[in-house]
Amino acid sequence: xxxxxxxxxxxxxxxxxxxxxxxxxxxxxxxxxxxxxxxxxxxxxxxxxxxxxxxxxxxxxxxxxxxxxxxxxxxxxxxxxxxxxxxxxxxxxxxxxxxxxxxxxxxxxxxxxxxxxxxxxxxxxxxxxxxxxxxxxxxxxxxxxxxxxxxxxxxxxxxxxxxxxxxxxxxxxxxxxxxxxxxxxxxxxxxxxxxxxxxxxxxxxxxxxxxxxxxxxxxxxxxxxxxxxxxxxxxxxxxxxxxxxxxxxxxxxxxxxxxxxxxxxxxxxxxxxxxxxxxxxxxxxxxxxxxxxxxxxxxxxxxxxxxxxxxxxxxxxxxxxxxxxxxxxxxxxxxxxxxxxxxxxx
Length: 346
Ligand SMILES: [Zn+2]
Known about the structure:
Layout: H1 2-18, E1 26-27, E2 34-35, H2 71-78, H3 80-83, E3 85-88, E4 94-100, H4 105-117, H5 126-135, H6 142-146, E5 149-153, E6 162-166, H7 169-176, H8 178-185, H9 190-201, H10 206-219, H11 226-244, H12 252-265, H13 270-285, H14 289-302, H15 309-316, H16 322-335, H17 339-345
């Protein structure tokens, strides 16, 4: 280590003064200092971050694949894994993580220490730190979120992987929205909250998670009420709106549908609610609008009420968010049977 990495730095400084003018020098690709050691930044000595330069000329401008690196930068790269946080995954594999933020070194150290302390064996550890970050959002700006970069790498026998996750602008705006922070707060179950965050960070559609969760609460496997599902549905509506850049972001329709679900549910016993909720969920899952409305209209007829216009609108207009409105109705329906839980949730 001393000979190969540290002595060469001192040696180079000496040579610079001695052999001035006679050396063929290059500029380091990273710090642009002059160097003549002939080290190149490539896969053979910088495994994982470097590429096989000679074989991947098309990666380089003008196919000039030389990437000189000075001994000092080489030492810094060499120390890179020391700054990362090592954790063991469920599979037993070691994974290294680092959270980068465009900030001073003290804050960077703090955020990474915090990350280490919150670490679980979860597959996506970043969801925890994101929940923390939006929790203290008053001090954070959209800009901060946009500049956060989560890095993860493994170093297993030449089969290492490197991946990263960043927050695009629309998602940063989403996380700074007070209604979003409120909806996250409305999900009391920590695991459900983490799952929702995971889905949002990895761009998966929340409707699948909501579907699973409503089914669970029908079966009462986990005591997560319709109210918490309703908050997840709102989050889905907001993230979709931000992604599309919608101007109208009122979640009034969802609130209305949720209340209607509760209203109908009050007329029914638990068995009827369960049967109806399953039918509706199945229809939503396959995107069958007419089947959904069939069940819906029957239920309104059963309790001798008029079907509200909102549902008719969602049925006829293609671009309206059928799934969110429909799921909100089912969440309300299911929540009407959790009479004991309602008190603490409201
Ligand atoms: Zn350098």
